[in-house]
Amino acid sequence: MDPFSRKLLEELEQMQQHTGRILRSMSLSRMMPMESDGWQPAVDIYEAENHIYVYAELAGVVGDSLRVTVDGQQLRISGSRQLPPHQSIACIHQLEIELGTFQRTLTLPSAVELEGVESTYTNGILVVTLPKRIRKGKVTIRITPGE
């Protein structure tokens, strides 16, 4: 492949990655939060054969403020992020970091076993591992005659 084509492909890959970041940050649930006035952390959900994995980007959130709740097929992540106080600010040039409380409720792609849910919080990333509910065997349903 000639150098021009290689450079063109690299540029297209970078554009694709940048576009993906833009689309993720513009998700409807983040633009129009329905459940709280707080900010909405970015979340990725992956499904494997036996588990669902949820990754939440929570840089700067103190682990003690985090709460993870599972109810049916709903996962709720909540907490708070604050910056350290600054003593001598004279002017603000840019504000992009969202602060304060947050709550994010997600609908999971399948039912989960509540007893096996685990979570870890490392380097600003919360990982919630949810074992999928596995239905075993065959069920025969008796049909009763109607009136």
TrEMBL record:
Annotated SHSP domain residues: 34-147
Q: What are the record keywords, sorted? A: Stress response
Q: Does the keyword Coiled coil apply?
A: no
Pfam short name (any one): HSP20
Q: Please indicate which superkingdom the organism of origin belongs to.
A: Bacteria
How is this protein named in the record?
Heat shock protein Hsp20
**InterPro entries in alphabetical order:** A-crystallin/Hsp20_dom, HSP20-like_chaperone, Small_HSP
Q: Which Gene3D superfamilies match?
A: 2.60.40.790
Instruction: Say which family it is in.
Output: Belongs to the small heat shock protein (HSP20) family.
